[in-house]
Amino acid sequence: MQSENKMFDDFVKMVNGFAGTMAGMGREAESSAREKFREWMGGQDFVGRDEFEAVKAMAAAARDENEILKARIAALETKSAGSARTTTASKRGGRPKGAAGA
């Protein structure tokens, strides 16, 4: 059923056009905001989970190797200190300090 009032029909068309325009503007704003956010996130220096896990494993291996090397250095220092005491005692013609006699 068509209305006889042309002014009312024009008003309805205008409101429908306004509503469509507002919906389009909303979609456009959302799309633009998503794109800006993607650009911002892309510019950040974030790493993926797989890269993080790989670096974490490398760090753990380096820590383990560091502990092994510390133990080797301590053993070599102990051995070196023992050799130095033996050399000093033999130059003096006596036994190393702390050595028991037989």
Unreliable sequence segments: none
Strand content: under 5%
Could you describe the largest sheet, including whether it forms a barrel? none
Cα Rg: 42 Å
- Specify the number of helices: 2
SSE order? HH
Broad shape: rod-shaped
What is the SS-derived class? mainly alpha
Helix content: over 70%
Distance between the termini: 127 Å
Domain count, please report it. 2
Please, what is the average pLDDT?
Answer: 85
Number of separate strands: 0
Question: Could you characterize what this model shows?
Answer:
The protein is mainly α and 102 residues long. It folds into 2 domains: 12-45; 47-91. Helix content is 80%, strand content 0%. The protein is built from 2 helices and no strands. The protein has helices at residues 6-43, 49-92. The longest helix has 44 residues, at 49-92.
List the main descriptive attributes of the protein structure presented here:
102 residues, mainly alpha, 80% helix, 0% strand, rod-shaped, Accessory factor UbiK family protein, UbiK
How would you summarize the topology of this molecule?
Blueprint: H1 6-43, H2 49-92
What's a concise summary of this model?
InterPro entries: UbiK. The chain has two helices and no strands.
